[in-house]
Structure formats: C-alpha cells, structure tokens
Amino acid sequence: MAVAIFALGLAFGSFLNVCIYRLPRGLSVIHPGSTCPNCAQPIRFYDNIPILSWLILRRRCRHCKVPISPRYLIVELLTGALFLACYAYFGLTLVALKYCVFGFLLLGLIFTDAETQLLPDKLTLPGIVLGLLFSLVVPVNDLLSNMLFGLIYQPAASASNPWLSLLQALIGAAAGASFIYGAGAIYLRARGVEGMGFGDVKLMAMVGAFLGIRLTIFTLFSASIVGSLTGLSTVLVVWIKRTRRRMVRHHESASEARRHGWESASIALRRFPMPFGGFLGSMAMVPSFFGDQFFRWYGRLL
Ligand SMILES: [Zn+2]
What we know:
Shape: globular
Structural class: mainly alpha
Number of helices: 10
Number of strands: 0
Radius of gyration: 22 Å
Order of helices and strands: HHHHHHHHHH
Bound molecules: zinc ion
Helix content: over 70%
Mean pLDDT: 86
Strand content: under 5%
C-alpha cells in the first residue's frame, strides 16, 4: 500500500512539474502533452517515468541533450514523500486526502514562486474553494474560533457540525488574507517598495481555508521568523565577504572596508527578491503534521 501511494505521489509530482512550468506562462497544463522546454520536442511516455527516466537519460533531453533541471526530480520526490507522510500520519482517510491536496498545491506554489516570483491564480483560487469544501467533510475544529463562538456554541462543536466547520474555514481564509494584506501595507509604508502582492493575499486565504485561524497565525509568525533570519544571514554573509575583499584587493583599513561592505550588503538586501510566498508556503506545510503537537507543547509550557 505504501509503495502504491508513493508511486501515486510521484505521478502527481510529475504533473505538478508541468504546472510549475506552464501556469506562470499562461499555457494549458493538459494540451499539448509534455515537451522539452528547450527544443519543444514531445516527450514520449517511456521518457516521462518519474525518477527513472531522469536517471536513465542522465538528466538530459533525448533529442537536444540540454540538461533537465533537477527541480523535476526534486518536485517528484517531495510529492511522493508528501503522499507517503499523509498516509503514515492519517491512514486511508479523508484527512489524508485533504492534506495531500493542500501539500500538492503548496509545493506547486513554493516552486513557482522561487522560479518566477509568481503565485498563479490557477493554483490559489481553486485552492481556496477546495479548502472550504474540505472543511465540510474534515472538521477544521479550530479551538480559537470555537472560543470566539463559545458564548453561543459548545467548544469543539464543529466536530459534529459541518456548517460551523465551514464558518471556521471562512474565518481562517479572511484572517489569513487580511493579516498579509495589512503586513504588505505596513511594509510598503516602511520601506517604500512592494514586499507582498495580491498573490500572497490569495495564498494566505487558501492556507486559512485549509487550516483555520489558529494554525494560520502559526504559519504567518513562523514564516516571518524564517524570512527575517534568511534576510539577516544574507546581509551578514554579503557584509563579511565584501569587507574581506575590500581589505585584500583595495587595501582599505578595517573600518573603511566594513563601512563600504555594509553599503553593499544593504543594497543587496534591497535588490534581492525575497521569496516570501515560498516561506509562507513552506511554513504552512509544517502545521499540517505538527501544528497540534506544537500547541500542546506550548500549552504545557504556559
Ligand atoms: Zn530537448
């Protein structure tokens, strides 16, 4: 069973690779069949087997011999691992299906954002709808919004009431979208450049619809921590490298080299497009499996 589910994940990963390449370019994901991105030759079915073809053809197109991006292999393996993890955690249940769908969409968005800085509507908008639909069959059962409704409803009532669960998914979607919209507005005011786009707003609406408000807040906080740490370490690495180079090549004094190095580092930070959608997407993946454990641990800590 596990092998079959892993193979199914690989096949979906293979399809996801097509989506990652074609959706940002406005191409259809169904027609025509797979072609080489370089020479546009159709890829035959026997050259399109996940992992195996990549290894047999030694990472090159059969026709033009141009290397194929390792992303194809990475996305296939990650999707296979995702499906397997959902099965291991939740068994053959609707919950497993829900997190397979959610993770599949997130993987597509993370890699599209990394390659093109775009979060295609064709992934986020159906994602929002799917998240809301899944809330009807898999209870969101969100403690925080249960507390909000505690005056009217019994806690954890959504476990037995699909409409309450849908309401919680709607609240999650609205909260995710408005938090990121607010953060984007503050960022624009503070730095004068656009940090977040409407793609991120739709991404967080989708995350909210799948996870509910509590785990959405968890996603936003952890993504901003990971994002800040990445930005900070980028600045530090550039600063140290430039300072050293200036001291060696330009024979500057240590303090002068440090000052010039700092200037280059801050320019690098401004120019470097932060893949914030990628951070949000990655951190949204975590609470699918570990969110409840985290809050139990956090609760004990308090
Ligand atoms: Zn080719």
